[in-house]
Amino acid sequence: MAADGTGKDNPAQREAVLTAVGAIREDPAAPHLLADLASSGFYSQFHFHRIFARHTGTTPGRFLTALRMQEAKRLLAETSETVMSISDRIGYQSIGSFTTQFTRLVGVSPGRFRELVDVLAGYRVTEPDLERARATGSRTVDCRLTLSGTAGTPLTDRISFVGLFDSGLPQGGLSGFGIVQGAAGTLLEQRPAAGRSEMFLMSLSAHSPLVDLAVGGDEDMLVSRGRTAAGSGTAALTLRALDPLDPPVVSAAPAVHLRSFLGGPSRGR
């Protein structure tokens, strides 16, 4: 950790980023200009941009967009509001811009996402045929999980879904996928990157609704992230509780993948 006070353990910087993230979460439809976010901590825009990225893993603009997409997914799943109304509520002036952004980051259009929620309704995360759902791919990666000291329930009570992405955030389509029951499993990298892929893990209780995987988890979700290095056949991840500074999981790709492995028709919302 940096000795000059610029590391992630700097309490004043973390507090400034928490204040900014709190403002974004409270009103995702607002523009949240960088100048306004930086001023709450008395930082220059340039310095605050670096601090924010250091603590969250992404920029203020991308964090705001991710939160908007998460709220849009929640509204699509829990309400009957029109796509136009949802677009307005989260700060988009053009439904076309919203639909394009949603489709790119979530992996399906708003209408398809609502259909996905209807298909998944009534199922738990354990009910798809998880063995068949383990995607085939060109490279296998053995994945081993451990719990941090405050992570809560044992691994035996959880199902962990690991997505491999080409970007630094869990957005868009997958480059690989894995399901870990307990402490160990196998990931399949379908489109191996030239160097390494970003791994994002969502661990849910075995009793969680499958819809939670599409929407982005629940308050009891555990998370982890890491990288698969070129030529490496193993990955070790430590699960931890969600932090307020964690960007939302926007991609619905894991849930889209599992849809094909349900044992029967949807049981309704």
UniProtKB/TrEMBL annotation:
UniProt KW tRNA-binding keyword: no
Gene3D superfamilies to which the protein is assigned, alphabetical: Homeodomain-like
The keyword Transmembrane appears for this protein: no
Domain HTH araC/xylS-type, chain residue ranges per copy: 18-116
Classification via SMART domains: HTH_ARAC
Keywords: DNA-binding, Transcription, Transcription regulation
InterPro entries on file: AraC_XylS_family_regulators, Homeodomain-like_sf, HTH_AraC, HTH_AraC-typ_CS
Annotated protein name in UniProt: AraC family transcriptional regulator
Organism: Nocardiopsis lambiniae
